[in-house]
Amino acid sequence: MPTDPTIHPSEILTTPAGERVQIDEEMLPIVRDLWRLGYATSACCQDVGEATAGVREKRTSPLGYGGDPFIEYHRGWALLKLPIPDAMRFVAMLAETPQFGERVRHPWRPSSWRMNVPLEPDGFNDSALLHFPKEQISELVEVLRKQ
C-alpha cells in the first residue's frame, strides 16, 4: 500500500505510548495539549480538503476517495480523530466552555463542529471524527492551555 505524500508542513512527535508520528504544524499545540490532558489521538489534519486535494495530485494511483465534492466540502475543516470514550469526554469538556459550548452542542449551525462515528458492516468504528473550522485552531489551543 502506498504511503501518501506529506502535504502540510509537519513535525515528528513521540506519542505517550512511545510511537513516532507525523503531526501537521498547526495541529501540534492541540495534539500536545490533548496528550497532556490524557486524551488519545489517532489522526489529525489542519485542512482535510486541502490535504486530500494535495494527496490526490501527488499520488500515482487513485485514492479511492476524495473526489471534487469531497474536497470542496472539507476545505477549511480541521480534523481530530480520537477513540470514542476520549472524544465524548473531550466534547463534554468543550461543551462547558463559553468559546465552544454552542459549537459542539448544535450541529450544522455556522461555526459548529461536525462529529461522527463511522458505521462499518460489523458495527461502529472505534474512533470518532471531529471536524471543526480550521479558523478555530488558535481558539482551541487557548481553551486547552487553560485546562
Strand order of the largest sheet: 3-4-8-5
Give the strand content: 15-25%
Question: How many domains comprise the coordinates?
Answer: 1
Which structural class matches the secondary elements? alpha+beta
What summary fits the major beta sheet? 4 strands, antiparallel
> What is the helix content?
25-40%
Total number of strands: 8
Shape: globular
Low-confidence runs of at least 5 consecutive residues: none
Walk me through what this model shows.
The chain is of the alpha+beta class and 147 residues long. The protein has one domain. It is 36% helix and 23% strand. The protein is built from 6 helices and 8 strands; from the N terminus they run ββαβααβααββββα. The model has no long low-confidence stretch (mean pLDDT 93).
Keywords:
147 residues, 4-stranded antiparallel sheet, two-stranded antiparallel sheet, 36% helix, globular
Task: Draw up the topology in text.
Layout: E1 10-14, E2 20-24, H1 28-36, E3 43-45, H2 48-58, H3 68-74, E4 77-83, H4 84-95, H5 101-105, E5 114-116, E6 119-120, E7 123-124, E8 127-133, H6 137-145
Antiparallel strand pairs: 1-2, 3-4, 4-8, 5-8, 6-7
Helix pairs in contact: 1-6, 2-3
